[in-house]
Design a protein that fits this description.
mainly alpha; Protocatechuate 4,5-dioxygenase, Chain A; flat
Length: 129
């Protein structure tokens, strides 16, 4: 940002506007610092066990806001991303919550895991040219 609050033009041109795309930037992630630390913290075995024994206590320990706690309770992956959580931290927490990366991706697209897989399968399975 320049001193007058204007973002300088990128040498690659203006950013593309894609519906539903969340651009992860520092100013976007900074308010979610504790949330990201928490999500990575629960991926370590000893912390995971403590978290699973007392989810509310672990969230209180990290001083998560109530909206952040609600996203964690709901396992709301798109909501966590929109709240500034890093996709890698979400993937680590997904493991703790019993979700695969495929299931997380499907939820973020509003699809079932089966529909997500079907959409990515090749249509021609004959193997011929």
């Amino acid at each position: 940002m320049t001193s007058d609050g204007v973002r300088p033009q990128s040498p690659f041109g203006p950013p593309a506007v894609i519906a539903g795309l969340i651009r992860y930037r520092g100013e976007f992630a900074q308010p979610a610092y504790r949330l990201n630390c928490f999500l990575v913290w629960i991926s370590k075995r000893e912390h995971r066990l403590a978290y699973l024994a007392d989810e509310e206590g672990a969230m209180a320990h990290w001083q998560l806001s109530e909206p952040q706690r609600a996203l964690v309770r709901a396992r709301d992956y798109p909501g966590l991303l929109a709240a500034g959580a890093n996709i890698y931290a979400i993937a680590k927490a997904g493991y703790v919550w019993g979700a695969t990366l495929l299931e997380i991706g499907a939820q973020m697209r509003g699809e079932t895991a089966q529909a997500f897989v079907q959409r990515h399968l090749p249509t021609d399975t004959s193997g011929g040219a």
